[in-house]
Amino acid sequence: MKILFLGDIVGDVGFKSVKNSLPKIMSSKKIDFVCVNAENAASEGVGLTENIANELYNVGVDVITTGNHVWDQKEILDFIKTENKLLRPLNMLGEMPGKGFSIY
């Protein structure tokens, strides 16, 4: 099994680069599973939106990890509650929504 993990996707440039390049990379390298960190993928360079997450899933991303900046785009609070492929930081204190880990 070939797994690709991409570090922090930052802003529009990073997001568009992954969106445009990932399908070709997956095909040429025969990648089976893709995990990306996208806590800074929003156009402002901080946070993540539901639309961006769905676009990443549509081009082949299997799971999205995040960090403390995931909360910078407030719309993600509702989406992360139900989206099993979007992980919040496991070590976040308190009752933050979402899952900190999963098995895929």
Task: Draw up the topology in text.
Layout lengths: L2 E8 H19 L3 E8 L9 H9 L4 E3 L10 H7 L22
Structure overview:
The protein is an alpha/beta fold. The chain contains three helices and three strands; from the N terminus they run βαβαβα. The chain has helices spanning 11-29, 50-58, 76-82, and strands at 3-10, 33-40, 63-65. The protein has a three-stranded parallel β-sheet, with helices on one face. α2 (50-58) links the parallel β2 (33-40) and β3 (63-65).
Number of helices: 3
Question: How large, in whole angstroms, is the Cα Rg?
Answer: 13 Å
Give me the secondary-structure category. Answer: alpha/beta
Instruction: Give the spatial strand order of the biggest sheet.
Output: 1-2-3
The portion of residues assigned to helices is 25-40%
Low-confidence stretches: none
Q: Quick check: average pLDDT?
A: 94
Strand coverage percent:
15-25%
Describe the sheet with the most strands.
3 strands, parallel
Beginning-to-end CA distance, first to last residue? 13 Å
Instruction: Tell me, briefly, the overall form.
Output: globular
Count the E strands: 3
Helix-strand string: EHEHEH
In short:
The chain has 104 residues and is α/β, with parallel strands linked by helices.
Key structural traits:
104 residues; alpha/beta; 3-stranded parallel β-sheet; 3 helices; 18% strand; globular
